[in-house]
Every structure is written in structure tokens, then in C-alpha cells.
Amino acid sequence: MNVSLPALKAFESAARLGSFKAAATELAISPTAVSHHINNLEQRLSVNLFIRETRKVTLTATGRQLADATNQGFNIIQAGIDKVTAKDNLINVATTSSFAALVLIPALHHFYQQYPQITVNITSGEQLTTDNFTLPVRFGIREQQNQADIIKCEQFNLFSAPHIADKFINNESVTIYTTKWKNNALPNAPLEDWLALNALQDKHVVVKYFDQELFGIQQAMLENAYVFCSYTLTQGYRQAGLLAELNTQAIDSAFCYYIENKQKNTTRHNHVFIEWLDNLML
């Protein structure tokens, strides 16, 4: 049977509050409109739902049955709405392990200071995320991305613990950690080009590789060695005084961080996070 939803809502409110006037106030309509909705509902169902007296209304036995059902039904609907609305306060971000560990997670406390009502869930891995409800922050070749999707183009240089930064030139042989990514479609870090740019191609260099920049940075710090990697991932360590950039010329790379279909992903759900991330990457 077709029953008007506004009529059911007017009935549920009046039954719960015990008053047409109170229901009208709750629903922001007139008492006459509440009465009209309930009269129509009674006619549609061919039952009396209320006993109307001069100053009060009382539910009939049939009215009590329907009141229990409508109250339960609207509570279920409200719970569903609350659950869906709560998702607007959760932002799911998928990114690389190194970017998550070295950039996003250390900076999240600043985000929460600005937006304490929002929770950010970060998952890391090297596989692309195609979930429409997850914000993908990826590492790739900048020429293959739309310019509007790019949030940071990468430069590379050599970094080390501050106390050995000045010893690089005088050391006859040095160990440099750098990266060969798991993704074979990505080119190598531009170490050879960097050596040539700084006229260091004849220097005796022992190159060791990890498949993530995070591991190279950590191992270089542990061994008092050098790491050739991007500015973005060393930023936190440099600000903390744990790494120093050598007095060498940085080199532009083919790499960038980007948000795939950034414009499409800039919705009410996550536009605040994207704006914050853009500022973080400046």
C-alpha cells in the first residue's frame, strides 16, 4: 500500500511526543499540516490512530502498533544516515611505503591540529589503488601524468649525517645507497647523471641498492654512509638535524608524486586533505 512518507513522519513525531503541536514544532510545519497528514494516513489505512480530545491526543491500540513500527523504522534510517555521514570524517589514503613513513605519518599531527574532527587512514604499498573511495598518492614518471595531478616534482642530491657531510670530497672511496624500485617500469635514480653534473664520475663509489628510499636512508644513517635520494623523503630528517645535504648540485629527475585524477578526487570527502597535502609539498 502506498503511504506518504511525510504522513508517516508526522504520525511518528505526534505519537512519540503525544501532541500534534509539539510534532509541528519538531518538524517545522504547522499543526494544521500535521493534522492533515495524520487524517490522510488514517483514511488511507482505514483505521483510527488517535483518540482526539480537546487538549490532548491519545494513541489507539492500532496507533500504538503503528507507532512502535514507525519509531523503529525511523531509528534504523537515522542510524544508517549517521553511519554514512560519519564516513565524511574518514579519509582513506593509499601511498608508497616510503612516502607514508617519511612524509605523511610524521606530519599527520599538524593535520589533526587543524582538523581534529577528521580521521586519516593510511595504507601503504607499491600496488596502484583503484578503489573509488580511496585517495591515491602515487610516485611515478612525471611525463606520464597530467600536469594538474602532480603535487611535487622530485630533485635528487646526496645526503648524510651532518658530521660526515664535509668528508665526502676528501674520501677516496665512499659508499652510496640509492634505489632500484620494485616497479620495473620506473627508471633508476639519476645517480650517474648526478655524478657527471658534479664532475664526480671518476670518484671511486661503491653503490648499494634497496628497493625503497626509506631503507637506503636508514642504512646510510646507521653506517655513516651516504644516500642519494629525493628531497621530499629527506625533509623530516633534515629538519631534525639528522641528515644534511652535501654541498653538491642537485639534479632534476623524471619522477613526481601525483594524485591520479586529482580533480575528480577533490570532493567534499577529501578536498581538505588534498589542500593540506599541496601545502605540505611546497
Automatic annotation (TrEMBL):
Pfam families: HTH_1
GO biological process: one example: DNA-templated transcription
Coiled-coil spans in chain: none
Domain HTH lysR-type: start-end pairs: 1-60
Keywords from the named record: DNA-binding, Transcription, Transcription regulation
InterPro entries, sorted: LysR-type_TF_proteobact-type, LysR_HTH_N, WH-like_DNA-bd_sf, WH_DNA-bd_sf
Keyword Transcription attributed: yes
A GO term for molecular function: DNA-binding transcription factor activity
Family statement: Belongs to the LysR transcriptional regulatory family.
Protein's name according to its UniProt entry: LysR family transcriptional regulator
